[in-house]
Amino acid sequence: MTEFAKLQNGSDIRGVALPLAAQEPVNLTEEAVEQIARAFAVWLAQRTGRPAAELTIAVGRDSRLSGPSLQRAVLTGLTAMGATAADCGMASTPAMFMATVLPGCGFDGAVMITASHLPQNRNGLKFFTAAGGLESAEIRELLRRAEEGPQAARLRGRLTAFDILTPYTELLRQRIIAETGGGERPLTGLKIAVDAGNGAGGFFATRVLAPLGTDISASVFLEPDGSFPNHIPNPENREAMESLRRAVLAGGCDLGLIFDTDVDRVGAMEADGTPLDRNRLIALAAAIAAEQAPGSTIVTDSVTSDQLTEFIEKKLGCRHHRFKRGYKNVINEAIRLNEAGETCLLAMETSGHGALKENYFLDDGAYLATKIVIRYAQLRRQGRTLADLLEGMREPLEARELRFRLLSEDCKAAGAAVLEALARYAAGQPGWSAAPENYEGLRYAVPAQKGWFLLRMSLHDPLMPLNIESDCPGGVDEILRELTPFLRGQAVLDTAALE
Predict the structure, then answer these.
(1) Entry pTM
(2) pLDDT at residue 271 above 80?
(3) Neighbours of 429 (CB within 10 A)
(4) Cβ contacts of residue 114 below 8 Å, gap of 6+?
């Protein structure tokens, strides 16, 4: 594998951008990023059938310390190929996509410099056209072109600046005004804490909520700081969610919202400190979608709970379609279902990536937060809360994830062999039954423990995650005990996680 190819992470590019750890040498250099940007300009010219000199491309970044230098490298690479490149400064990943579709913007393409929630020494690139984010195969093609070396252009392009957050935040504010019917300051009387984790999401408090009358005084860590001094900007992180819980309770807030670094994911907190994340956040989004399209399909990733299925299908009257991990996989499956004639308004991962059909099936944390705020404001006028929408949604009593490293150089083949062996092992276990509809790894129900487990290959790493849930006290341990002889018998698995 070439050095450029190693930078691919699914449909993103990610690498080490700062020399902060001796064991992690820098591989996402300014030179490499400039080459990748040149390749994107050439790819986009071929995709649009227009010369690069006629293209306009927007470039934004999150709060990472390496962001400014890598942004300059991207701008240099694009203009070197003749394109007009617009410096959008600090932005969010969803805002950069919107630069290609919002009226008055109309960029041919966009680049976002981000590595989501990864440590501060990492960074990466995401690419967009009006058709959406580039797919894995297209990223592979960009990296192949970059590997070939410097591209040449007859004319040097122009460097400009563009404020994408102004039209983007206006879109969100107008959505709230229109759907709450409360005039120009429809959120007056609401107190909402936003925890941006020093990422790029502070704008949601200051530029969306506050102008509409919201009291945002309990918000924390709105200031961008790529050293992330307070906690990782990640709604899946326990420390981050605890930070939000403290802000909500100390401030006496109606609601709390938390974003990841580039604001394509969101988590929330109820007024009493009950977290709205993972299955519970999907349940809330599904309840909102079900009000718009009763009986529609909700697409989620593979590790969602049986309790979520029960809520979606029995309480909401919708269909739960559990698909593969990976936000692009979930989104693309929802698009496919709609094209096949099956109504699907929501595609969502337990990580907090939530995409709505009404919003280009874009995984946009700020847009989903906007939908939650709208529904909260509507319910509040009726003397109700978000908890009323979630009535009947149960969480499993116990849940655990273990990650087993694969010791083989051919991880794909090794993982497939482990799954084949698991199917044989499971066939001999009394009561175990394979999930009737499963698209990733192997998922089995274990009725004796009122639970299930899923063993699968990691999307990008040489790992096999094992998820276990149970509604019985000690049930997770019992399921794991029954699986342990099998796991220890797999020579290609590092079973240290069992200790």
Answers:
(1) 0.96
(2) yes
(3) 14
(4) 61, 62, 64, 93, 123, 124, 125, 126, 200, 261, 262
